Amino acid sequence: MKRFLWCELRCACLRLAAPVLCAAVLIGYNVPSGDAFEILGIGTASLLGGDLTDPENDGDETAYNPPVDFGGFDAEFFSSDEPGFGGGEFAYNVFDNLVGPSNDKWCCGTMFPQIVGAKFAQPFVLTHFTVTSGNDTDDRRPRVWTVDGSQDGLTWETIFSQNDPSAPLWDAHNQVIRFDSGPDFPAQSVAYTQFRVNVTATGATTGAFFQINEIEFFGRPADIGIPGDVNLDDVVDIEDYRIIRDNMGTSNGRALGDLNFSGRIGIDDFRIWKDVFSAPAAVPEPAAFSLLLAAVMTAVFYRRRNRIVG
After folding, report:
1. Are residues 109 and 217 both part of a single domain?
2. Same domain, 238 and 147
3. pLDDT per position as a tens digit, 193-209
4. Which of 2, 142, 192, 262 could cross-link 149 (Cys pair, CB 3.0–4.6 Å)?
5. pTM, 2 dp
């Protein structure tokens, strides 16, 4: 219900011809968080594609031979076990842009932790990532695991953590799940040159006890302006809010409001702007705020009433 009211309030407010007052209403409202992670679907078609490891989706695993040749990939990969593509379901298969059986996945583990990651030539701030379950055997899915970042490969900082030994997050084979900065893990400000997935427990402890099908990392370069500054004029102001407002729900890119580089402009981008923006003069006194909020909610009520009557 809370999220429904927020959506109604936002939609009504965005139609007002007073963006400063509208921004004040939204700033004063505690924006509810979204669901914990997002299930994108099943199989290769549900991958986002174009992640940091292979922005052009043209990596050739047969040509991957660093440091001489990266085979079109934009990262150098590493793992605690079974390094390489292909092989007998080796670790780097999680970066091959494919979801399926056999050498489309990494399986099956020799000992915990099972670690796989990517090292980049420049630092990135992680904005979102996907992890895809294997094609068989539920007990092999990660249950206790983290996504970590590092600037030197020696010291690692936990970005995301999942710790439920009783059950995995995935409820189907070949299932792609997306995790976003803000709703699913703390919004990031530190840039790292390396990211890894570190699995310390699945539902099995012996035999073939582990598998992951695919991993995608997404992020923004470390030097992309001030958080919340959409138009890159070095000021976070109401003009930035207008750009986000006018492009809400689209995929028009960073210059038009995609502040977290998620591929879509939405509530999380507004949150980034809201957390930085500060304009006391734009925020009405309590009485004025109450009147404005009442007017907005009245407009919502009559719009919904007219829908029902009509």
Report:
1. yes
2. no
3. 999 999 999 999 889 99
4. 192
5. 0.71
